[in-house]
Design goal:
By secondary structure, the chain is α/β, with parallel strands linked by helices. The chain has helices spanning 18-37, 51-54, 57-73, 87-96, 101-104, 118-128, 145-168, 181-189, 209-217, 222-235, 245-258, 274-288, 310-315, 354-371, 386-407, 418-428; strands at 6-8, 76-80, 108-112, 133-139, 171-175, 192-195, 263-268, 296-301, 320-329, 376-383. The chain starts with 5 loop residues before the first strand and ends with a helix. Bound molecules: 5-phosphoarabinonic acid (PA5).
Length: 431
């Protein structure tokens, strides 16, 4: 087992030759140098590059203290935020935690402000019932409609239940250091606030208080998460594609893209990776999809989706490639037993573990998809721990910055997100 995150491109070799990687290397290395020089487009949003080491240590201690208070006085935490203001925390909770955490761990953690559904909000309020709860509202701009609506509702509930002062002790606002509606409200009402640094965009903010507070409330080791990111920062700093799996990932996905593979599907065989894929889709989709360019990011959970998308992937239009994230060592496993009647015909697997079967399913699928014309990259993680997740977050963030520059876009803005808002506000009659 490789002790650290590594990239395996064996199932890609039919589609991408080593000589092609060699040919694109100079451009990838140039894009990486541009990122590191901090002179490229969007260079006022590069705080995440150094973040795992240069974060505000005093604030980090406040994050941990707030998490302890919430754990002690709340049965439920409602995390309100959308896009980059929730996906990292959600990914970490699912990756590092129990698959059924809200049934087995306290406090229960629910996400709101990720949609504009009144039904969803009502049902969440029903689930909380009359139990003690706190709210972490997260919005860098402080004006995003979805979380703002949800926060109105939960602030009113808290104030009704605990009074204004009591509510203010249960509301934690993660927002801009100085400006925005949420910052103003937090200052007026005396909420404890945490900062989304000016130079860190939403989708790169998981290792700030945006991600760290909910992750710490969940009882996940945030020190280990940050340590994994630091280790990845060192490991993937090498300037040459040949010595750096992060740059190699950038090289291969862009070679494939230039050959007409316009869709990258992030694949997993472990449900705990589902929201890592959601986080990744936003990271790359919002960073690269602009100016009429970009790889479309999609994802699938296998083997579940082999029974739905499997047909298309195997036989449909040949415009996609897959990146599989695999976990070498499962945290726990199930051994299959023999039965007397063997009616389901599974006795040949008696004594084998589910992870063994799962890995054979992955191997069989890798071969089948490759043979069907779908290149596969594989990112291998030794274990599903906070440390390795921190490394994965940093690996993808760095790859995304380099890949965006290679593509010739500003990976750190998102002008396209405004279009729907403009129409929605006009339709709603906003002055
Ligand atoms: O990556 C981004 O910048 C976006 O996804 C934002 O995180 C999202 O739109 C939420 O914005 P805000 O935190 O300002 O409410």
């Amino acid at each position: 087992m490789n002790p650290f995150l590594s990239l395996d491109i064996d199932y890609c070799s039919r589609f991408v030759g080593e000589h092609e990687i060699h040919h694109i290397s100079a451009s990838v290395e140039q894009a990486a140098a541009l990122l590191d020089s901090q002179q490229g487009p969007g260079n006022d949003f590069l705080g995440w590059l150094d973040l795992p080491e240069t974060y505000d240590k005093a604030e980090y201690q406040r994050v941990k203290a707030a998490a302890e208070r919430i754990r002690a006085n709340s049965e439920v935490l409602v995390v309100i935020g959308i896009g980059g203001s929730y996906l990292g925390a959600k990914a970490a909770l699912e990756f590092c935690g129990h698959a059924f955490r809200n049934q087995v761990e306290k406090p229960e953690i629910y996400f709101a402000g990720t949609n504009i559904s009144g039904m969803y909000l009502n049902q969440l309020i029903q689930v909380i019932g009359d139990r003690d709860f706190s709210v972490n509202v997260i919005s860098k701009s402080g004006t995003t409609t979805e979380p703002a609506i949800a926060f109105r509702v939960f602030r009113a509930l808290l104030e009704k239940k605990y009074g204004k002062k009591g509510a203010s002790e249960r509301i934690f606002a993660t927002t801009d250091a100085k400006k925005g509606a949420l910052k103003t409200l937090a200052d007026n009402e005396g909420y404890e606030t945490f900062v989304v640094p000016d130079n860190v965009g939403g989708r790169f903010s998981v290792l700030t208080a945006v991600g760290l507070l909910p992750i710490a409330v969940a009882g996940i080791d945030t020190d280990a998460l940050l340590a994994g990111a630091v280790a990845a920062r060192q490991k993937f700093a090498a300037t040459s594609v040949a010595d750096n799996d992060c740059l190699r990932y950038v090289a291969v996905r862009n070679i494939l893209h230039r050959k007409g593979k316009d869709i990258e599907m992030l694949i997993n065989y472990e449900p705990r990776l589902h929201f890592v894929a959601e986080w990744w889709k936003q990271l790359f989709g919002e960073s690269e999809g602009k100016d009429g360019k970009g790889i479309f990011t999609a994802s699938a959970d296998f083997t579940t989706d082999l029974h739905s998308l499997g047909q298309y992937i195997q036989d449909g239009k040949r415009h996609l490639f897959e990146t599989l994230i695999s976990i070498d060592q499962p945290e726990s496993d199930v051994v299959l037993a023999a039965t007397e009647d063997d009616l389901d015909g599974l006795n040949y697997l008696a004594g084998k573990t589910m992870d063994y079967v799962n890995k054979k399913a992955a191997e069989g699928t890798l071969m089948a998809h490759r043979d069907g014309g779908v290149p596969n990259l594989q990112i291998r993680l030794p274990e599903a721990t906070p440390y390795h997740l921190g490394a994965l977050f940093y690996f993808f963030e760095r790859a995304c910055g380099v890949s965006g520059y290679l593509l010739g876009v500003n990976p750190f803005d998102q002008p396209g997100v405004e279009a729907y808002k403009k129409n929605m506000f006009a339709l709603l009659g906003k002055k």
